[in-house]
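A reminder from the course coordinator: this example appears on the midterm review sheet, so study it carefully.

Given structure:
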């Protein structure tokens, strides 16, 4: 049975490592999304201001 427990421990550690990688990826993707959203909002504000000036 000790070998079985060791294998289970290794599997749990591998799953934890994979989840940690997925969390890091999700965090990075969220940061990119937030930055892109901010940039789009600024672009829209600039376009709106430009449109007002042209009227």
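Designed residues:
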């Amino acid at each position: 049975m000790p070998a079985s427990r060791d294998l289970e421990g290794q599997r749990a550690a591998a799953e934890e490592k994979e989840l940690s990688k997925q969390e890091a990826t999700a965090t990075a993707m969220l940061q990119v999304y937030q930055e892109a959203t901010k940039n789009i909002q600024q672009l829209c504000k600039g376009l709106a201001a430009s449109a007002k000036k042209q009227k």
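Helices lie at 2-54. The two ends are 80 Å apart (CA to CA).
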